[in-house]
TrEMBL record:
Domain of life: Eukaryota
Protein name: Rhodanese domain-containing protein
Coiled coil: none
Provenance organism: Selaginella moellendorffii (Spikemoss)
GO molecular function, one term: catalytic activity
Residue ranges of every copy of the Rhodanese domain listed in the record: 24-125
Amino acid sequence: MSDQGPRDVSLKHVEVDAARGMLQSGSHRYLDVRAILDLRAPEVFATGNVAGSRNVPYYIPGSDKVKNTNFEQEVLSNFDKEEGIIVGCGTGTRSVLAAADLLAAGFTNVYNMAGGYRAIKNKQTDNK
């Protein structure tokens, strides 16, 4: 393995509009992002989601915010550790926790969608 020097694995945030553009184009001029990781419960995910997103709940469905102990492994079964991932949830709080966990687990290209799906809905309402 070659030593490429230190890598910047700090948590990065993207605004909803930037996230939407990145997903629609398959990338961004500075960021290589291919998919969104939706952390919401499966029943919430089923009511509406971003096309092409993959659902891996951060919390155990039906629990009162008990972390899914298989979370990192389930994400790894859907994404490579170097793959660009936008992490999203309902409000943006859970996605910060999940993104930090993924960075700690060795994922290197993780972006938190600031404001979550609520911000997307607010943007849609503002544009009407």
